[in-house]
């Protein structure tokens, strides 16, 4: 295979989305290589990407909509029947119980997000109000802490940092930043740089580290409190940074001044001198960057640990310089958050433009952006301002409420209807979903819509989630495969794969240059499948929600040119504010008409490009998209469409990072009243959940060399560790009389299953680990390989604050199977 017929795309197995080139031969992804022109991955891939054909092709692929029969089996039906029956049944549920009883889950995974735009319009058309996705079982605690501190998402510049910290994070296997392995190797090889890893086991990354803090599982709160207390008590704090850039240090100082570091050390199992020395190393560093992930986010006290983690880099002044932490621009925020205050809008117009931009993000992320962009163009200002005024009048009270909720408490005032769980970033906590259904409460969810996710496998307590699916009046799943979730649905809608449609993710967290990658379809859709934007468009068309005259007018305008289109869209929505929520659908149906065939799903990116150009005008201009009014947004959109690889959409200067702090005075708010008392009370806080019955701590879901959630179902993909063995320390193995390759019965209060043992010196006594992504079948239902981790977990073990699960901390018992 020559390189000439290779096409540019990206790997979809983890959120890094490394650029790759693929040569397609007879619908096979025949030859896969790293794309050297990709601006962030620069040719890098890991070994997992090379056999992506096992995702694209195989007996797992669905080729027809399916409808459940009363006997539990499925009947193939055609698309028109599926669309008609589903909209009718949703209409009945809405009429009887209200649209807010229709719950949406998913919409993204590791590689596909564009469908979520039309799904949003569909949700709104139904009157649905609650949704969630995998972020609400890992990142919402961190999202809440971020909202308290500075109101945005932070990441680290690991490539240039002198000292790096990985907290419950194993980037050698799980990546999460570009070119993770070469960057880790460079740090490890440089005697002047220091890698610190906090992990109970000797992970691949811990094995490379200069300092490994081998914490007891679940005891990170004490370790992190000890580190922060050392900074405070040994005068290692960057007081000048805090004075210039933050509020609230006195409260923080007073809390940590009384923390007993020796007692913290005893609880977390890390030597006190090592804690003090590590804090000293961080404080002495010219630059420091850190990453927290599932090791703490799936463990007890996770929201508190996120806070302590962030204090570590804030108190040492490691923000906003090369090699430190940063906030970043985004083409579209992943969770509901107000955009940063657009700095360059003339002061006189700032409040109005601000309110529109914020309301726009809140409502659609689309309309407000275009309006506010238009307000900045002298030529368009008058007519658009008149139209915008009417929209504003309708949006202002809503926007004000949204902004207040977001800024004051990260939106956490919203609660779920039945269990009153905190909704963070707009997402219902995953561990609460089944509880919101399995009840006779009148406000329980009555329908489940699931897209690009496998929650009957990925959420805590799979059996309970299956029960919830059975309890709702209607469950619909959109997927490429008949997954563990799909087989419990009433209808299954087969999606075109991520290489058969135009797609993108919004996991772009780089600074100072941020990138966006729109992938193009590499091969025609598998017959019988549809791309998600088209699926949602068909549902919305059937609901007959927008008059043909409106669509015709917009379509004509789209063919006349982008500016004409912009004005027509704005005036249409000004006259009909009820259409604002449907903007993604309008764009798909009308602007989509002017795009290359099979790129229609990208239409919504025009509005996001406009929003981006408005929000970060200087950085977008520096990236090469300048001009007035709609011009830079149009140019950015064209560039996204034109290039097969990722493009740089913002180029910031490091100083500008402060403009991304979502506070009027651009200062961090570091005293968090909900969490400081928890720090002060740590010595009285429970640190052990094991018992005589369940004496071991099970981490259910470790990232290994060949795991990728449940995206690849074919077990032949895994070259090693095919069955996903249970790793156990030599001490525990000896005590239980277990050896490599033995079978054992693993039990937790939720479930019991047979596992294969791997004795590993990487594990500490008392801690055992299973990989993620196992326990899925491939050709025959029930013929699974390995253990499904959530047969063993519980929805009740969760963070008290954010409701995120303790997948890494499950009390468990292991018994040899003698045969
Ligand atoms: N190969 C591979 N890569 C992936 C994925 C995949 O499925 N496979 N999935 C992607 C996704 S969705 C995510 S969210 C990321 C997750 O990426 P990571 O968070 O890095 O993945 P894990 O291996 O689940 O957990 C990291 C570490 O936490 C440690 N740990 C367990 N208990 C504790 C504890 O109590 N305290 C501390 N400090 N550490 C603990 C584990 O030993 C493990 O080494 O990976 C992404 N990348
Ligand atoms: N016990 C335990 N549970 C965990 C974890 C753990 O460590 N331990 N990790 C958690 C984490 S961090 C995450 S992110 C979640 C991940 O769990 P989920 O969010 O449920 O995601 P995936 O397993 O990645 O499932 C992705 C689904 O998308 C489907 N898919 C692939 N391509 C397409 C497409 O183009 N269109 C459509 N419609 N569908 C497609 C796949 O077939 C698959 O069913 O799991 C969580 N669950
Ligand atoms: S699995 Fe992740 S790190 Fe590996 S090639 Fe794919 S996107 Fe890159
Ligand atoms: Mo994840």
User: What strand order characterises the main sheet?
Assistant: 5-4-17-16-15-6-7
Strand content: 15-25%
Distance between the termini: 51 Å
Residue share in helix:
25-40%
Shape: globular
- Small molecules in complex: ligand MGD, iron/sulfur cluster, molybdenum atom
- Kindly report the average pLDDT value: 91
Structural class by sheet pairing and helices: alpha/beta
List the total number of helices. 28
Radius of gyration (CA) equals 26 Å
**Quick one: how many beta strands?**
28
| Largest sheet, strands/sense/barrel | 7 strands, mixed
Runs with pLDDT <50, length 5+? 338-354, 356-365, 388-412
What's the gist of this structure?
This protein is an alpha/beta fold and 819 residues long. It contains 28 helices and 28 strands. Helix 4 (140-149) crosses helix 14 and helix 15 (350-363) runs antiparallel to helix 16.
Describe this structure in words.
Helix content is 35%, strand content 15%. The two termini are 51 Å apart. It has a seven-stranded mixed β-sheet, with helices on one face. It has 819 residues and is an alpha/beta fold. It contains 28 helices and 28 strands.
Present the secondary structure layout.
Blueprint: E1 6-10, E2 19-25, E3 28-34, H1 53-56, E4 66-68, E5 74-76, H2 79-97, E6 102-106, H3 115-126, E7 131-132, H4 140-149, E8 154-156, E9 163-167, H5 171-174, H6 180-189, E10 194-198, H7 204-208, E11 211-213, H8 220-233, H9 239-245, E12 246-247, H10 249-257, H11 261-268, H12 272-284, E13 288-292, H13 294-297, H14 302-315, E14 325-327, H15 350-363, H16 367-375, H17 378-409, E15 447-451, H18 455-458, H19 462-471, E16 474-479, E17 491-494, E18 513-516, H20 532-543, H21 548-560, H22 562-575, H23 583-589, H24 604-615, H25 617-622, H26 631-642, E19 647-651, E20 668-669, H27 676-680, E21 696-702, E22 726-728, H28 730-736, E23 743-747, E24 752-759, E25 767-771, E26 776-777, E27 784-785, E28 810-816
Parallel strand pairs: 6-7, 6-15, 9-10, 9-13, 10-11, 12-20, 15-16, 16-17, 21-25, 22-24
Antiparallel strand pairs: 1-2, 2-3, 4-5, 4-17, 8-14, 18-19, 21-28, 23-24, 23-28, 26-27
Helix pairs in contact: 2-20, 3-20, 3-23, 4-14, 8-11, 8-12, 8-14, 15-16, 15-17, 16-17, 16-22, 16-24, 17-22, 21-22, 24-26
The protein binds ligand MGD (2 copies), iron/sulfur cluster and molybdenum atom.
């Amino acid at each position: 295979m020559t390189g000439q017929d290779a096409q540019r795309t990206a790997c979809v197995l983890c959120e890094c989305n490394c650029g790759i080139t693929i040569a397609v031969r007879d619908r096979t992804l025949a030859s896969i290589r790293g794309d050297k022109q990709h601006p962030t991955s620069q040719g890098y891939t890991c070994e997992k990407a090379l056999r992506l054909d096992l995702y694209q092709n195989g007996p797992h692929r669905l080729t027809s909509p399916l409808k459940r029969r009363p006997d539990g089996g499925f009947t193939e039906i055609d698309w028109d029947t599926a669309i008609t029956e589903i909209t009718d049944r949703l209409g009945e549920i809405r009429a009887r119980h209200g649209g807010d009883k229709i719950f949406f889950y998913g919409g993204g995974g590791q590689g596909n997000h564009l469908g979520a735009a039309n799904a949003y319009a569909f949700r709104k058309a139904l009157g649905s109000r609650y949704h969630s996705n995998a972020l609400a079982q890992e990142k919402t605690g961190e999202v809440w802490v971020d909202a308290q501190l500075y109101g945005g998402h932070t990441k680290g510049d690991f490539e240039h940092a002198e000292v790096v910290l990985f907290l419950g994070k194993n980037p050698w296997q799980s990546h999460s930043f570009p070119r993770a392995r070469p960057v880790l190797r460079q740090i490890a090889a440089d005697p002047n740089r220091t890698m610190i890893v906090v992990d109970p086991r000797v992970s691949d990354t811990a094995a490379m580290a200069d300092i490994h803090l081998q914490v007891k599982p679940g005891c990170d709160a004490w370790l992190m409190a000890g580190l922060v207390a050392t900074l405070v008590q040994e005068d290692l704090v960057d007081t000048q940074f805090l004075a210039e850039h933050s509020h609230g240090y006195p409260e923080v100082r007073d809390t940590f001044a009384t923390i007993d570091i020796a007692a913290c050390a005893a609880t977390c199992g890390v030597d006190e001198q090592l804690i003090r020395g590590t804090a000293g190393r961080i404080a002495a560093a010219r630059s420091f960057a850190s990453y927290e992930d599932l090791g703490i986010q799936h463990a007890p006290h996770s929201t508190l640990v996120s806070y302590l983690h962030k204090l570590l880099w804030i108190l040492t002044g490691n923000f906003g310089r090369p090699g430190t932490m940063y906030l970043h621009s985004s083409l579209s925020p992943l969770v509901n958050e107000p955009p940063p205050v657009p700095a360059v809008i003339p002061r006189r117009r700032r409040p109005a433009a601000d309110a529109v931009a914020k309301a726009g993000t809140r409502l659609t992320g689309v309309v407000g952006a275009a309006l506010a962009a238009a307000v900045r163009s002298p030529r368009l200002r008058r007519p658009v301002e008149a139209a915008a005024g009417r929209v504003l009048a309708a949006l202002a009270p809503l926007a004000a409420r949204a902004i207040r909720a977001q800024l004051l408490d990260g939106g956490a005032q919203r609660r779920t209807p039945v269990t009153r769980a905190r909704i963070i970033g707009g997402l219902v906590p995953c561990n609460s979903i089944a509880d919101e259904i399995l009840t006779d409460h009148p406000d329980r969810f009555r329908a489940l819509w699931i897209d690009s996710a496998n929650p009957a496998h990925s959420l805590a307590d799979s059996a309970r989630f299956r029960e919830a699916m059975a309890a709702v009046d209607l469950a619909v799943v959109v997927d490429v495969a008949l997954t563990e979730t799909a087989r419990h649905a009433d209808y299954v809608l087969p999606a075109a794969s991520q290489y058969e449609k135009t797609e993108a993710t919004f996991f772009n967290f780089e600074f100072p240059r941020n990138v966006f990658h729109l992938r193009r379809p590499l091969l025609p859709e598998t017959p019988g499948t549809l791309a998600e934007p088209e699926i949602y468009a068909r549902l919305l068309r059937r609901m007959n929600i927008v008059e043909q005259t409106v669509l015709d007018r917009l379509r004509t305008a789209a063919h006349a040119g982008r500016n004409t289109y912009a004005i027509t869209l704005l005036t249409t929505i000004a006259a009909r504010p009820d259409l604002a929520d449907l903007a993604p659908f309008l764009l798909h149906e009308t602007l989509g008409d002017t795009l290359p065939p099979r790129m229609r799903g990208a239409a919504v990116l025009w509005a996001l490009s406009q929003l981006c150009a408005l929000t970060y005008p200087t950085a977008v201009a520096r990236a090469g998209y300048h001009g007035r009014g709609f011009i830079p947004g149009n140019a950015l959109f064209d560039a996204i469409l034109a290039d097969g690889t990722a493009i740089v959409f913002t180029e910031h200067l490091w100083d500008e990072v402060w403009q991304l702090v979502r506070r009027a005075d651009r200062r961090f708010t570091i005293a968090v009243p909900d969490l400081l008392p928890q720090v002060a009370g740590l010595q009285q806080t429970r640190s052990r959940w094991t018992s005589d019955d369940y004496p071991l701590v099970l981490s259910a879901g470790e990232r290994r060399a060949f795991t990728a959630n449940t995206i690849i179902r074919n077990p032949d993909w895994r070259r090693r560790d095919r069955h996903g063995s249970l790793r156990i320390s030599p001490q525990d193995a000896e005590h239980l009389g277990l050896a490599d390759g033995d079978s054992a019965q693993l039990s937790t209060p939720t479930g019991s299953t047979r596992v294969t043992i791997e004795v590993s010196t990487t594990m500490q006594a008392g801690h055992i680990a299973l990989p993620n992504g196992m326990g899925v079948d491939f050709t025959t239902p029930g013929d699974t390989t390995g253990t499904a981790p959530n047969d063993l977990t519980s929805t009740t073990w969760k963070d008290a604050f954010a409701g995120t699960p303790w997948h890494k901390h499950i009390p468990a018992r292991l018994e040899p199977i003698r045969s």
